[in-house]
Structures are given as C-alpha cells and as structure tokens.
Write a structure and sequence with these properties.
This protein is α/β, with parallel strands linked by helices and about 160 residues long. It has one domain: NAD(P)-binding Rossmann-like Domain (Rossmann fold), CATH 3.40.50.720. Helices cover about 45% and strands about 15% of the residues. The chain has a 5-stranded parallel β-sheet with strand order 3-2-1-4-5, sandwiched between helices. Strand 1, helix 1 and strand 2 form a beta-alpha-beta unit. Helix 1 runs parallel beside helix 2 and helix 3 packs parallel to helix 4. The longest helix has 25 residues. The structure holds nicotinamide-adenine-dinucleotide (NAD). The site of nicotinamide-adenine-dinucleotide has 24 residues, from helix 1 and helix 4.
Length: about 160
C-alpha cells in the first residue's frame, strides 16, 4: 500500500499479532483505522495505542464468521469515517501440528474462520466500498484462490 494518508482501513482480526502491527504501521502513516476483532478488550488496547500516538482509530467488535455482523460493521465504519477504502483480513487461526493430529472441531473452526470468514469479509465489504481504488488483502493461506479471482472480477479488490 503506497499513499495511505487519510485512507480508511478496516482490519478484521486487528487485535492479533499481524493485525495490530499492521494497524499501528498504517496509522503512523496517516491512515484511519477501524479496529475490528472478536476480542473487544484487546481491540481497545490497539485502538488506544494508536490514539495515544496521535492517530485516529475506533473499535468494532465483530465475529467474522457471522455475515450479518460483518455487514453491520462495514456499514458502521463507512458511516463513522465517511468512507471505506481498504479491507485487511487478519482474523484467522492456525493449528501448527501434523494434519493427522488436528481433530474435527479444530479443522471445522479453521474452515469457518479462515475460509468462510474471508468470504464473508469480501462480500460485506464489496457492499461498503465506494472508492474506485478500494482494496482487500487476506493473511490466511487458507483463503482460496477462487475468492481472489471472484473479487478481481468484481473490479473492487486488489490482491
Ligand atoms: N500467509 C502467511 O504466511 C501467514 C503467516 C502467519 C500467519 N498467517 C495467518 O494470518 C492470520 C493472523 O495471524 P496472527 O499471527 O496475527 O494471529 P493471531 O492469533 O495473533 O491473531 C488473530 C486474531 O483474529 C481474531 N479472531 C479470531 N477469531 C475471530 C473471529 N471469529 N472474528 C473476528 N476476529 C477473530 C483473534 O481474536 C486475534 O486477534 C492467521 O490466520 C494466520 O494463520 C499467515
């Protein structure tokens, strides 16, 4: 991402490692950050840290596997900031063990969050993006290529 000054960036999973570092870096370059995460307390910590260094940031509690919550978050971000330029999806989980040791519940959680969550994020944001240069980025390696192709065809995303 090049010139981010005054761009409105919604980061899903923003309370985590990659999300919070990305948020602080973009905020230091002038972006306005919508800090969205299922962990509201940690999201508040990230937003406070950004505001304490002069940045602009608000918290949006959300479960990315719930499409109505994502849609509502997108609408609220656009309303609060006046626009939405970029989605960065860092919400995800990874069980770092051999596949055979991962149980069904853990696998289903991974699919729901990393794959379905990414798709829900895309769909929610495609309704909220208005700027022609709007972009979406996904951290999860599980995020399927067809989603990226779909998004590119919609013309609203860059990967
Ligand atoms: N592509 C790569 O090479 C690469 C490398 C490292 C990590 N990753 C992936 O990037 C993602 C983020 O990594 P990280 O190290 O920041 O992880 P992390 O665990 O530090 O952060 C994940 C964040 O997602 C949030 N979250 C979990 N479930 C959620 C839900 N249902 N709704 C909203 N938020 C939810 C958590 O609260 C947490 O803040 C993970 O999916 C990880 O597997 C990819």
């Amino acid at each position: 991402m090049s010139d981010v000054k005054d761009k409105v960036v919604l980061i899903l999973g923003c309370a985590g490692g990659i999300g919070s570092v990305t948020a602080k870096d973009l905020a230091s370059k002038g972006a306005k950050i919508a800090v969205a995460d299922i962990n509201e307390a940690k999201a508040e910590d990230v937003a406070r840290a950004i505001r304490n260094t002069g940045g602009e940031s608000r918290v949006y509690p959300v479960d990315v596997t719930q499409k109505e919550q994502v849609r509502a978050t997108v609408a609220k971000v656009a309303q609060d900031f006046g626009s939405l330029d970029t989605l960065i999806n860092c919400a995800g989980i990874m069980f770092v063990r051999p596949l055979i040791e991962i149980n069904t519940v853990e696998w289903e959680t991974t699919v729901d969050l990393n794959i379905k969550g990414g798709a829900v994020g895309n769909r929610g944001c495609s309704a909220g993006f208005h700027a022609p240069a709007a972009r979406a980025y996904h951290q999860s390696q599980f995020h399927p290529r067809p989603q990226s192709v779909f998004a590119r065809r919609r013309g609203a995303f860059g990967f």
